[in-house]
Amino acid sequence: xxxxxxxxxxxxxxxxCRQLRWLADGKGWGTRRFHALFLAFHHPTEGTCLIDTGYSxxxxxxxxxxxxxxxxxMTPATLNPAGDASQILATHGWDPPGEIFLSHFHADxxxxxxxxxxxxxxxxxxGLDELSDLPVVSQVRQGFLSxxxxxxxxxxxIALGRDLFHRGKEDWREFDMLDYFGDQSLWLVHLPGHAxxxxxxxxxxxxxxxxxxxxxxxxxxxxRSQKPLPVPxxxxxxxxxxxxxxxxxxxxIDPSRLQLAACHCPFTETLAANHxx
Length: 277
Prior knowledge:
The chain is α/β, with parallel strands linked by helices. The protein is about 25% helix and about 25% strand.
């Protein structure tokens, strides 16, 4: 079968939180912006799709009261003045997405899902199942704010089981993957460690595929240098041993054959179509 290429894709900035740079790469005590990127792509038959959503005003509403307020204090967020993901897409000439792929359920990745009342949500089932069973305080500690999910979320959910994922070939033989559309245009990749059900994505684009590893690292320089994360950053990973194992697998891929991108990496932020916002 001939593989399908995605003719159009773009990163966008969906707001940011401000944190110590040291937490991401162990360098310096200054603060930097950790942009909440989302990614749009156009599939020839499925139309516009989205990966994550960034922040929106719904994040502020969800963190107005306690214990959710603690999350806002720990990760002080600033919304994009250009609007939420739905408004940003419209401004840049994109149709509303039919499907939104959720890499995981941390608030900076699902903060705008309520802005898309007709979209379907695709995710790894364990990513939500594990968090939904926790008390609210524990959910907040895990970075999950249940009020960010719209009413009727389950009616529009496409919850994928791990049994649908299989070992890839060649460079991907260490990864469990799913050819989502069945045409090799988009591969979902299980990248355990950072959060329950954490996913990355391989997009078949020119001039070479993009491997969007979402939060498998926060800075590609840290990934390449193999510098350990500071202790506080290790403790907030869902499983730090799995996180390290995932990074090792990513480093073993031939870097000349793809373009790596990570959600909060300064390099990836410069690729955003609305970088100047």
